[in-house]
Design goal:
Elements (H helix, E strand, L loop, with lengths): L7 H9 L3 H23 L2 H18 L10 H20 L9 H8 L6 H17 L2 H11 L5 H7 L4 H19 L2
């Protein structure tokens, strides 16, 4: 059962000190949710279980690299899982379907449970900023940062010149940054 007050940051710092109990607690807290996300990204349980295993191995090995000043512990572990899943997809050459509602789905998966109330405002703000971007800039940004596609893959997928895609991502990120600073 998930504990909404789970302290991801302290748990990761304990893992960095080779505290196996902390690692087990982290696994119990997040493994089921992480497996669900991996299945949704990869499409099948077997590769998702492999991805989850690889992610937890990396979490254990690299816990010392976690820095609470750079973000939440929960976001950090999910980024490891996401990169593992995206690497598997790239190796298989699979492309992922992306609808316009992907921002809501992906943003809802990433906040820390212990800080859910605090993150609700941030999520709404990010969602609002993403929605302010016109689709030609929003779609490439989402494909790049939430699905891990390369600029070349995005250009091919959207049948748009590579230079145009790079420019749209760059200007989209600038617009998001300006919006989020308000």
């Amino acid at each position: 059962m998930s504990d909404p007050m789970f302290d991801y940051e302290s748990t990761l710092e304990a893992c960095a000190r080779s505290d196996e109990r902390a690692f087990q607690a982290l696994y119990r807290q997040e493994a089921a949710k992480m497996l669900g996300l991996a299945i949704s990204l990869l499409g099948h349980r077997d590769p998702a279980e492999d991805c989850l295993h690889d992610a937890f191995v990396q979490i254990w090995r690299n816990a010392g690299r976690f820095q609470r000043s750079l973000g939440s512990g929960r976001a950090w572990i999910y980024s490891i899982l996401r990169y593992r899943a995206l690497n598997q997809l790239r190796q298989r050459g699979r492309t992922v379907t992306l609808g316009d509602d992907i921002a809501d789905h992906l943003i809802d998966e990433s906040p820390s449970a212990a800080q859910q109330h605090e993150h609700q405002s941030d999520k709404r703000h990010l969602r609002a900023c993403l929605q302010k971007l016109e689709r030609p800039r929003r779609h490439p940004v989402l494909l790049a940062f939430y699905r891990g596609l390369t600029h070349e893959q995005i250009a091919e997928r959207l049948t748009t010149p590579l230079g145009t895609i790079k420019g749209r991502i760059r200007s989209g990120l600038r617009a998001l940054q300006e919006c989020l600073q308000r």
